[in-house]
């Protein structure tokens, strides 16, 4: 029998009681102000539409599973650890955000190859001054709600942290230092005489590259897939999410939701913590 974890910005007592009745749960436990655990809940199809209607996140989880059972968390950056798509915001300073954002969205839905989408977007940035990177970091980059609380709890139980991104290393390097992450892996745009050339240096960090980096760090730490948590939102995250025992689609595209063990749409990243006892 599984437990049903229910989370939301507002969780009505009436909704909890209705879900408990629907799933024949034996008890309702408060995890936090925004999260509750329904013990010994039966798997019932009606839970999905009920929670969608009530704007609630829900997840069936194994009883007794603890955060300390895991040794590594692997996260995407754009629209996951942070609230923006960095390349789109850089493009805004070139006056072409709409064009670039359209390519980004198509790639995240899995409609076009990620590597090709990145090449096309970076080509459109040719000639832009590198100061745009710093401006985006200082003026527009915001951590996703709950990110710091999630990472603090994970570090407290000894988990290692890896940031994998199809974005730029300018941002991942700063987030690695700011958040005390163990490792970060991303793309490096070519900049000559202070301006973007429209090219990327080295191999492009696509979905396959993200998965390889997860496996490399996982194996170096001597962990099994069941000891890894993955969090992402786009189609290029699916390969690495499939390598994680617990995979979380965070406010994600349909292709990602279908490939993961859990989905979070309404609460922040600290909602990940409620999945464990």
Task: Describe the protein in words.
The protein has 277 residues and is an alpha/beta fold. It has a domain of 63 residues: Alpha-Beta Plaits, CATH 3.30.70. Helices cover 38% and strands 24% of the residues. The strands form two sheets. Strands 8-7-6-5-9-10-11 form a seven-stranded mixed β-sheet, with helices on both faces. It has a four-stranded antiparallel β-sheet with strand order 2-3-1-4, covered by helices on one side. The longest helix is centred in the C-terminal third of the chain and has 14 residues. The mean pLDDT is 96.
Secondary structure layout:
Elements: E1 2-7, H1 13-23, E2 27-32, E3 35-41, H2 47-53, E4 57-61, E5 72-75, H3 77-81, H4 86-92, H5 97-108, H6 114-124, H7 131-139, H8 147-156, E6 160-168, H9 169-179, E7 183-192, E8 195-201, H10 207-220, E9 228-232, H11 238-241, E10 246-250, H12 254-257, E11 262-264
Overview features:
7-stranded mixed sheet; 12 helices; single chain; alpha/beta; about 25% strand; Alpha-Beta Plaits; about 280 residues; 4-stranded antiparallel sheet
- The side-by-side strand order for the widest beta sheet comes to 8-7-6-5-9-10-11
Return residue spans where pLDDT drops below 50 for at least 5 consecutive residues: none
Helix content: 25-40%
Helix-strand topology string: EHEEHEEHHHHHHEHEEHEHEHE
* Rg estimate, integer Å: 20 Å
Find the count of extended strands (DSSP E, 2+ residues).
11
Number of helices: 12
Classification by helices and strands: alpha/beta
The average pLDDT score comes to: 96
- Coarse morphology: elongated
Report the sheet with the most strands, covering strand number, pairing sense and barrel closure.
7 strands, mixed
The separation of the N and C termini measures 15 Å
Query: What fraction of residues sit in β-strands?
Result: 15-25%
CATH topology call of the domain at 1-63: Alpha-Beta Plaits
By CATH reckoning, the class of the domain at 1-63 would read Alpha Beta
Would you identify the CATH architecture of the domain at 1-63?
2-Layer Sandwich
């Amino acid at each position: 029998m599984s437990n049903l974890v229910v989370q939301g910005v507002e969780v009505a007592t009436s909704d909890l009681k209705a879900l408990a009745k629907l799933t024949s749960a034996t008890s309702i436990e408060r995890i936090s102000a925004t999260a509750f655990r329904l013990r010994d809940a039966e798997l019932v199809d009606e839970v999905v539409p009920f929670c969608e209607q009530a704007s609630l996140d829900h997840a069936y989880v194994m009883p007794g599973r603890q955060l300390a059972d895991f040794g590594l968390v692997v996260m995407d950056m754009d629209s996951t650890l942070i609230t923006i798509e960095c390349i789109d915001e850089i493009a805004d300073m070139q006056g072409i955000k709409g064009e670039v954002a359209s390519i980004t969205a198509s790639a995240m839905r899995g409609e076009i190859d990620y590597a090709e989408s990145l090449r096309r977007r970076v080509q459109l940035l040719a000639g832009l001054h590198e100061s745009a990177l710093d401006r985006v970091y200082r003026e527009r980059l915001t951590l996703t709600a709950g990110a710091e609380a999630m990472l603090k709890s994970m570090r407290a139980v000894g988990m290692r942290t890896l940031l994998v991104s199809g974005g730029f290393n300018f941002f991942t390097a700063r987030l690695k230092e700011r958040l005390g992450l163990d490792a970060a892996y991303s793309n490096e745009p070519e900049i000559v005489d202070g301006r973007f050339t429209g090219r990327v240096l080295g191999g492009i960090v696509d979905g396959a590259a993200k998965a390889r980096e997860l496996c490399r760090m996982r194996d170096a730490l001597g962990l099994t897939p069941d000891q890894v948590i993955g969090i992402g939102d786009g189609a290029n995250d699916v390969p690495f999410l499939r390598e994680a025992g617990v995979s979380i689609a965070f406010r994600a595209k349909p292709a990602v939701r279908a490939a993961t063990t859990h989905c979070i749409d309404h609460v922040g990243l600290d909602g990940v913590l409620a999945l464990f006892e």
